Amino acid sequence: MGRATPHPGRETAASACATTAGLLWVHHATPEAGTALTSMITSWLDDSTWADCLHQLRSSKALTHDNDTVRQRALTLMQQRTEPALDKTRHALAQCQTSTDAEREQLKETIRLLDNVASQIYFASGGDPNSQPPAAPEVRLVDEAEPLSVFSADAPG
After folding, report:
1. φ, ψ for residue 62 (rounded to 5)?
2. What 3 state SS string does 87-143 have?
3. What is the C-alpha radius of gyration for the chain, rounded to an integer number of angstroms?
4. In degrees to the nearest 10, what's the CA dihedral of 141, 147, 149, 153?
5. Of 10, 13, 114, 147, whose CB has the highest number of CB atoms within 10 Å?
6. Those residues with Cβ within 8 angstroms of residue 128's Cβ, 6 or more apart along the chain or in another chain
């Protein structure tokens, strides 16, 4: 992780680090993974670095897992990803200045991250238009993710 640098695109070393640490923390509470995540979350804000991690959390059923602790760690990780992104978005929009192209691109990437978190929760909760009615674990996810939804709904825009 110390040598990885996030950059646009998937299948990067940074993305692999974020995904591995996320899965190890959420499913196994590996302390070193939690420490690594804390560091990555504060410095790697782009969606491309986190997209696979968020997708893998949903695909591994962490958001609808039978174990309460696993589900809570997954939701907490989602919230930890949204807080810095929301802060950055609020700050950029509050400045009301003409931004440089690089600043606008960075804001777009941050908003993509927020959209990705919302999408992963949506699909994990059975939000596919072609799916069956949600099962009990999916309904529980909607209830448990409500604080995250309310937090994200406060986002400007």
Report:
1. -65, -35
2. HHHHHHHHHCCCCCHHHHHHHHHHHHHHHHHHHHHHHHCCCCCCCCCCCHHHHHHHH
3. 16
4. 170
5. 114
6. none
51-109 residue pLDDT tens: 899 999 999 999 999 999 999 999 999 998 888 888 888 888 787 666 788 888 888 88
The angle subtended at Cα 128 by Cα 127 and Cα 134, nearest 5°, is 55
Residue 15: exposure state from Cβ atoms within 10 A (0-12, 13-18, ≥19): buried
The model's pTM is 0.82
What amino acid occupies position 95?
Q
Query: What are 97-117's pLDDT values in tens digits?
Result: 667 888 888 888 888 888 899
| Token pair belonging to 137 | 């674990």
